[in-house]
Amino acid sequence: MSARCQVLGTVPGFGHSISHSHVRTKRRFDPNIQRKRYWVPSLGRYVKLRVSARGIKTIDRAGIDVVVARILARGERV
Questions:
Q1: Which Pfam families match (predicted)?
Q2: What is the pLDDT of residue 1?
Q3: CA-closest candidate to residue 53, choices 65, 35, 73, 28
Q4: Nearest to residue 6, comparing CAs of 61, 45, 62, 47?
Q5: Are 25 and 16 within 8 A, CB to CB?
Q6: Among candidates 16, 11, 15, which has minimal Cα distance to 30?
Q7: φ/ψ of residue 30, rounded to 5
Q8: Measured on CA atoms in the order 55, 56, 59, 65, is the torsion positive or negative?
Q9: Residue 65's closest CA among 34, 36, 44?
Q10: What is the pTM of this model?
Q11: Residue 29 near residue 14, CB atoms below 8 Å
């Protein structure tokens, strides 16, 4: 499963781990993805979303109906 937020589109970032001796090794910064279930009144059903912690805050602020409408407008399945 990909580490991608369905609300914001957040994807992993890449960089280096730097040790005490300053040796750099590749690493991956994954977004904090959570599996959440929301009741969507406009659809009359529950939807399961893979959202980041910041995406959950966006849903709280804008409302689940608005966010789901944006996801459906992009052509993504919910």
A1: Ribosomal_L28
A2: 65
A3: 35
A4: 47
A5: yes
A6: 11
A7: -85, 140
A8: positive
A9: 44
A10: 0.85
A11: yes
C-alpha dihedral, 76 to 78 to 2 to 9, nearest 10°? 60
Phi, psi of 67 (to 5 degrees): -65, -45
pLDDT in tens, 13-55: 999 999 999 999 999 999 999 999 999 999 999 999 999 999 9
Helix ranges (H only) for the chain are: 53-62, 64-73
The pair of structure tokens assigned to 5 is: 């937020």
Identify whether the C-beta of residue 17 lies closer than 8 Å to the C-beta of residue 59. Answer: no
Buried b (16+ CB within 10 A) or exposed e, 3-37: eebbbeebeeeeeeeeeeeeeeeeeeeebebeebe
- CA–CA separation, 1 and 8 (whole Å): 17
User: Residue 47 is encoded by which pair of tokens?
Assistant: 């939807």
